[in-house]
Design a protein that fits this description.
By secondary structure, the protein is mainly beta. The chain is built from 1 helix and 43 strands. A hairpin with a 4-residue loop joins strand 24 and strand 25.
Length: 552
């Protein structure tokens, strides 16, 4: 019904053609959808019709329109086509709290109500105009705006609902941004970030410095979905700076990924390395952000340990507050030891970046600060440790027939894990002041408690140091409380066995008969009996070689 896509239906069978049946749909209603698929190796892709989404309209009935208290049952209703109301120039996404409203092809309309409440009881009529600006509530998500119109005869329309999606979160930066000089061109390649709402990649070029503004007027090498592009306008002996931004449907731009390509012959002048103002850095658990202090005056920052924990598949956020050196800093870049380089963007009093972490278990993170006097400071911030999520599983024990080369065989047990989705995982923390256990206040740190496990049974908490235990619950599987454990590295990702199943290969029925449940043992038993019978028949047919003789 809107492009916010609030529900999902799926077919989990691994086939090349699927059929999905949708139920409980309203009549004469337009629905939007996108299609996602994955293989057994975890490779997945999503088709959203280039951001426009696919759609269909159900037949019959009338469009659902929210009720209104302003139109009586015997009063004529002014008919208004909702398509005449255009939000944000028709873009279903916005990154601003104030949006434009355009009213097209309205005749004899004198008054209009525009509000956030679907009943519009507290909203006053105002003079009709074709253009409005509307402030929507903060917080990312789908926002509803309600309209009602009245003509010169006093007829009022029913209340019409229009929706728009507010998205202020920029995607992660492209990764593995690389460039190679070939004959008369530079070949560029990168990897799109894993964010589901990424619409495209914009790559800038400059022969002076890195472009850190995604709205720059500098030369654009490519702008779209392509992960590879070529720059033919290059000259020998020149150095070129390339910046790659990812952007989403609401036109939020990511931190830039940066590379510098020097075409031979090129001799770089040595850069003077001087110690300037980097004082401290720490991991801010509350905002899950790596904070760095620059300048002489450092507030609420301490020199922290050199290992920063993050879950895999989660982006790394960097926030640097420069107290007194903004006028001296020209640019800041982050370097990972896999060769990826990212530029930080200046926003108000902060330099910020949001990047996808590599899949390696640990990566060295280095900050490079370039000052306006040409000097440069390099600070190793430490190792970023990539931790896996924990998961909840069911242990399955089943019979397993083990064969040996000499023809012998034996029964053994095979153990497998069935990871369970939609399990509620509660985390409890020991309160040393009250000397008791209480539910961990995850909302203080931007998390949920309890967490609901994913389709692969995954969950994970980032927590302060302390003592904890977990409780996992799902109807039909029971519940499990773990042993108490101490956390020093901020990560809670224990694997929890919620239940277990043991599969036997036999049972005794009500008539005291032995019943085999496994087809394989029956076949083997039959084969063993057959081999024995064949050997007996062969011995009888050959006979005893000493029969008919006597020895004296």
């Amino acid at each position: 019904m809107t492009t916010s896509l609030g529900e999902a239906s799926s077919d989990l069978s691994f086939v090349t053609s699927h059929s999905i049946t949708l139920t409980n749909l309203n009549s004469n209603t337009t629905y939007y959808y996108r299609v996602s698929s994955a293989d057994t190796y975890g490779n997945n892709t999503t088709d959203n019709n280039s951001g426009n989404f696919y759609g269909f309209t159900t037949p019959g009935g009338n469009n659902f329109i929210p009720p209104t208290n302003n139109v009586g049952p015997n009063q004529d209703i002014l008919s208004i086509d909702s398509n005449k109301i255009v939000l944000n120039n028709g873009n279903p996404f916005t990154n601003e709290n104030q949006i434009s409203i355009k009213l097209n092809d309205f005749d004899n309309t004198l008054k209009v109500k525009i509000g956030d409440d679907k009943n519009l009881i507290q909203t006053n009529w105002q003079n009709f105009n074709t253009d409005f600006l509307k402030q929507i509530s903060s917080g990312d998500g789908t926002k509803s705006i309600y309209f009602q119109f009245r003509d010169s005869n006093g007829k009022a329309s029913q209340i019409i609902e229009k929706t728009i999606v507010l998205d202020t979160q920029a995607p992660s930066a492209p990764s593995n941004f690389k460039g190679e000089y070939l004959i008369n061109l530079i070949q560029l390649s990168l990897v799109r970030p894993r964010d589901s709402d990424v619409l495209g990649i914009r790559v800038f070029k400059s022969d002076q410095e890195f472009i850190l503004d995604p709205y720059s007027l500098n030369e654009i090498i490519s702008d779209g979905k392509a992960e590879n592009s070529s720059d033919f306008n290059v000259k020998a002996g020149k150095t070129y700076y390339y910046s790659a931004f990812a952007y989403d449907y609401a036109r939020n731009f990511s931190t830039p990924a940066l590379i510098k390509i020097s075409i031979p012959p090129y001799t770089a002048e040595p850069v003077a390395l001087v110690k300037k103002g980097v004082k401290s850095f720490e991991f801010d658990l509350l905002s899950q952000t790596l904070k760095i202090g620059i300048g002489e005056k450092i507030e609420d920052l301490i020199i922290s340990k050199k290992t920063f924990h993050f879950f895999n598949k989660a982006p790394l956020n960097i926030a640097i507050k420069d107290n007194n050196l903004f006028e001296n800093v020209q640019a800041m870049t982050l370097v990972l030891n896999n060769g990826s380089v990212y530029g930080l963007i200046k926003q108000n009093e902060l330099w910020v970046a949001r990047i996808d972490l590599p899949q390696e278990s640990m990566s060295l993170l280095t900050l490079e600060v370039l000052y306006k006097d040409g000097s440069k400071e390099i600070v190793e911030l430490g190792q970023v440790l990539i931790d896996p999520f924990g998961y909840v599983y069911q242990k399955i024990t089943e019979p397993y027939l083990k064969l040996f080369k000499n023809g012998l065989w034996s029964w053994e047990r095979k153990y497998t894990q069935n990871k369970i989705e939609k399990v509620k995982v509660f985390l409890y923390q020991y309160n040393p002041d009250r000397k008791d256990w209480q539910l961990f206040e995850a909302s203080r740190f931007g998390q949920q408690n309890p967490q609901i496990t994913t389709k692969t049974g995954e969950y994970g908490f980032l927590v302060p140091a302390g003592q904890y235990y977990l409780e996992a619950i799902k109807i039909g599987f029971g519940e499990k409380t773990t042993e108490k454990f101490e956390v020093k590295d901020m990560i809670v990702n224990e694997n929890v066995e919620l239940s277990s199943i043991e599969i036997n290969w036999w049972f005794i029925d009500e008539n005291r008969n032995l019943v085999l449940l496994t087809v394989l043992p029956l076949g083997l038993l039959f084969a063993i009996i057959s081999i024995k019978a064949i050997r007996i028949r062969r011995r009888r047919k050959i006979g005893n070689p000493y029969d008919g003789f006597s020895v004296k």
